[in-house]
Design a protein that fits this description.
With 432 residues, this protein is an alpha/beta fold. The protein is built from 13 helices and 17 strands. It folds into three domains: 158 residues, 3-Layer(aba) Sandwich (Rossmann fold), CATH 3.40.50; 161 residues, Dihydrodipicolinate Reductase, domain 2 (2-Layer Sandwich); 83 residues, Alpha-Beta Plaits. The structure holds NADP nicotinamide-adenine-dinucleotide phosphate and L-homoserine.
Length: 432
């Protein structure tokens, strides 16, 4: 039994994650930091609705709707923010930091949108701002990037960090079901939110990638500097054709040193079936890191859910309880080389096009003419499904590595060709 003075914990939020953290604390996991560490004791938990049934039973008087009763309680030394969203989370975190309390958050949105201010504030006040649970749920990734890998120059991060979209894409690939059909199923099973925008349009992945970019490269990546595309527009043909060509489709989140800076992007990508990332299915997450000393590393696990996320939050809390001498916010606050964020226009990779075209002589020549003029070299062309009634066919073109800006120009010109009914898909092929 520790003889050290207890460290009071205040929870902001008692939902999916907050309840699991409360349960871990009540079960005594807050005493696992080892000899000399302060045992963690849950003091108060903030909610909006006192009547709502909770997943955890807490002693009378712990749950409150008064933010001040948590944030300003002198018996509380560390605040855990598991409410989500930008506001009032930002105001509450700022107030806690101002009051000299350490803070732990699972909230990637507030870190993406207000991370600069929060980290600067925490450094100024000499308190810790830890956020392992903000990316990849239970996967330890912020800790390794912030401490174990500090001696490395991180060259690239490639990740699947949104479980909802990975579940949908896996189903679409395996069952050849439409996006709308799979989304409805995912919502019925509770995997996808009633409003799926944050997940399916790539916002959630972009928030998390912004957090990873700060830790790995020491640069702030605001949302408007991240190239972001979601999965809403994907059609079943892409999964069938991609499989024929030896690929699977994933929502990729990548940050990589390129052109003297860092390019940060979230978009669906063709991943070769031969690489491990192609096999990360369902709600699993993975983060692949490449450091100049360590080489490639692979972190895979459950990217969401109460217990895995509580595992990450508890890890941060126990680090604070132990008072370890790790630099407070590691890369987040250390002077970084002046890296700029690079525009997506400069990105270079192979591309997959699916064009719904008139099935008649001379069509391919017109398309090839545009691609050739824009220095986009064709690697293969396959005519896939045809629709004899409409005299149309799916033309699938794979290119050699080409520059994004030229590809977007080509798409504009191809759309204007009278013989092309529709540019059905333009997907990037991830290089390995
Ligand atoms: P949740 O189930 O919706 O819980 C949110 C909690 O915060 C609820 O208890 C809610 O109170 C409370 N809350 C929200 N706004 C409030 C306000 N203005 N004042 C007082 N209380 C407020 O959310 P969650 O799934 O636990 O997620 C929490 C955070 O963890 C989010 O940032 C999320 O992105 C992150 N995260 C979640 C997961 C996951 O698997 N769920 C994984 C990783 C990270 P009421 O209960 O009274 O409404
Ligand atoms: N909505 C997220 C996902 C989980 O689908 O991965 C919370 O980070």
């Amino acid at each position: 039994m520790s003889t050290a003075r207890p460290l009071g914990v205040g929870l902001l939020g008692l939902g999916v994650v907050g309840s699991a953290v409360a349960e871990a604390l009540v079960a005594g996991r807050g005493q696992l930091a080892g000899e000399g560490a302060r045992p963690l004791v849950l003091k108060r938990a903030l909610v909006r609705d006192l009547i709502r049934p909770r997943l955890v039973t807490l002693p009378d008087g712990v749950v409150t709707t008064d933010p001040a009763a948590v944030i300003d309680d002198p018996q509380i030394g560390v605040i855990v923010e598991v409410m989500g969203g930008e506001q009032p989370a930002f105001d509450y975190l700022s107030r806690a930091i101002d009051g000299g309390k350490h803070v732990v958050t699972a909230n990637k949105e507030v870190l993406c949108k207000k991370g600069d201010a929060l980290f600067a504030h925490a450094a100024k006040r000499g308190v810790r701002l830890l956020h392992e649970a903000s990316v990849g749920g239970g996967i330890p990734i912020i800790g390794p990037l912030s401490s174990d890998l500090l001696a490395n120059q991180i060259n690239s991060i490639r990740a699947i960090i949104n479980g909802t979209t990975n579940y949908i894409l896996t189903k679409m690939a395996n069952e050849r079901a439409s996006f709308d059909q799979v989304l409805k199923e995912a919502q019925a099973l509770g995997y996808a939110e009633a409003d799926p925008t944050a997940d399916v349009d790539g916002w959630d992945a972009a928030y998390k990638l912004s957090v990873l970019t700060r830790v790995a490269f020491g640069v702030s990546a605001p949302l408007d500097a991240i190239h972001r595309e979601g999965i809403r527009g994907l059609e079943t043909q892409e999964f069938r054709y991609a499989a024929t060509l030896g690929y699977t489709i994933k929502l990729l989140a990548a940050a990589r040193r390129e052109q003297g800076g860092v390019l940060v992007r979230v978009h669906p990508a063709l991943i070769p079936n031969s690489v491990p990332m192609a096999k990360v299915d369902g709600v699993l997450n993975v983060v692949e890191v490449e450091g100049d000393l360590v080489g490639p590393l692979w972190f895979q696990g459950r990217g969401a859910g109460p217990k895995p996320t509580a595992s990450a939050v508890m890890g941060d809390l126990l680090r604070i309880a132990r008072g370890a001498e790790i630099r407070k916010n590691a890369r987040a606050s250390r002077p970084a080389p002046a890296l700029q964020l690079v525009s997506m226009d400069a990105h270079e990779c192979k591309y997959y096009f699916r064009l719904v075209c008139k099935d008649r002589p001379g069509v391919l020549a017109q398309i090839a003419g545009i691609l050739g003029r824009l220095q986009i070299s064709i690697a293969s062309v396959i005519q896939m499904d045809t629709n004899p009634d409409r005299r149309e066919a799916d033309l699938v073109i794979m290119t050699h590595p080409s520059v994004e800006k030229s590809v977007q120009q080509a798409v504009r010109e191809i759309r204007d060709l009278g013989v092309v009914a529709r540019v059905a898909a333009v997907l990037r092929v991830e290089g390995y």
